[in-house]
Amino acid sequence: xxxxxxxxxxxxxxxxxxxxxxxxxxxxxxxxxxxxxxxxxxxxxxxxxxxxxxxxxxxxxxxxxxxxxxxxxxxxxxxxxxxxxxxxxxxxxxxxxxxxxxxxxxxxxxxxxxxxxxxxxxxxxxxxxxxxxxxxxxxxxxxxxxxxxxxxxxxxxxxxxxxxxxxxxxxxxxxxxxxxxxxxxxxxxxxxxxxxxxxxxxxxxxxxxxxxxxxxxxxxxxxxxxxxxxxxxxxxxxxxxxxxxxxxxxxxxxxxxxxxxxx
Amino acid sequence: xxxxxxxxxxxxxxxxxxxxxxxxxxxxxxxxxxxxxxxxxxxxxxxxxxxxxxxxxxxxxxxxxxxxxxxxxxxxxxxxxxxxxxxxxxxxxxxxxxxxxxxxxxxxxxxxxxxxxxxxxxxxxxxxxxxxxxxxxxxxxxxxxxxxxxxxxxxxxxxxxxxxxxxxxxxxxxxxxxxxxxxxxxxxxxxxxxxxxxxxxxxxxxxxxxxxxxxxxxxxxxxxxxxxxxxxxxxxxxxxxxxxxxxxxxxxxxxxxx
Lengths: 263, 258
What we know:
The structure holds two protein chains of two kinds.
Chain A: H1 4-10, H2 13-32, H3 43-56, H4 60-90, H5 92-105, H6 114-121, H7 125-149, H8 153-161, H9 166-204, H10 209-218, H11 222-250, H12 252-262
Chain B: E1 4-14, E2 20-31, E3 36-40, H1 47-54, E4 62-67, E5 70-71, E6 79-82, H2 86-89, H3 96-106, H4 112-124, H5 140-153, E7 158-162, H6 170-187, E8 190-195, H7 198-204, E9 207-211, E10 218-223, H8 234-237, H9 239-257
Parallel strand pairs in B: 3-8, 3-9, 6-7, 7-8
Antiparallel strand pairs in B: 1-2, 1-4, 4-5, 9-10
Helix pairs in contact in B: 3-4, 3-5, 4-5, 7-9
């Protein structure tokens, strides 16, 4: 366990100071020109208004709606992309078949698929989850394929000399050896999933943080709009931190190895 | 019956450009249970290809390999190959103990006995206290000890070793040779060893096959009858050791000169 002193030392103080400085600059500029008020409320107003919105429960339903779509989309994407990535990484022929298709679809900005999804699925959760899945699949898929293909053939030979068949080599050697790549893909998609949930909600939601932000803006409740923006930012930050904490725990060997290589 | 028999084994493969390379041009040999035998040859003579074929990791172009009289079609269950590149063949995500346990798990043995066997092998190769370290925290010599312990924990009847000490420094090399000999005598495993180091082959082996350049063939077979246990100073200091070394060296350099 880390001691409280150790925890304090690990905090990135300069980073927090810079964030504080931006908030102060915001506050000062909002105060210096009262005319700004309608576009740029003071930072000191937004935080309390965010707090009130959460306490009153008004934001909670939007937060829960967004979180639910995020978790559903991200989980489905992870499952599909990791499975497909392993299969495509393992079987060269299949990869040759699908490679061009993947390279064609992958660079397309995923938000461009939203109108298509609207057309096919209509307005609702399934459409939002579908576009989130679509966008989140690519980084995980491509990284998993790369990871499986990058597994040192000597590790596979080692498995074979110990009498392992294809399936056990996959489970005991290929998967762990490729896991750092998979994790990289999962981390990239974490941010992408949040972007797609928010964007799709702005276009086709009656609930959710994206909907809330746009709706408050249209109703000229600018303070509430900013509160929504801040909440999405905090959400993204927390999701990333949680991910990093989980990664540090499961991929300890990888971090140790990299630290070693850097020396 | 010989524990291992290689009959007229030949291997050619097609290179990137389409040209066919003949790596092995027909090798035959027999290994008796409990023997320590070596192949020595100039570098690039197809030694690794030969071991891959014997280990069932590569199919020969012609000829065959028999283990206990049965033809090898895939990796045989009673035979393990130790690679030269220990840094690539160890599992970075597993600790030393978990690496050594790998072969036992592969056999489906996750018992307490398996773990105590793994621990005792770790101790025998001199890594006691490093069980929980990861391979990348260890030096090259220590990594190869892990690979040897992992192979022996599997209890193979035949251990194939592809220049296992080739990339180690001279002192570590001598130390590992003695550890290997000690384990070989203790466990009774048959060892087939490949090296380009003539003295290493003499020091370790009961018999040595000298290989020609590509496509490789056996050009000579030598019996090494120094008493055991051998000793780095007295065995290597023996006048006959030098004679043998020179004879093999002459044979190989003639071969290279063609």
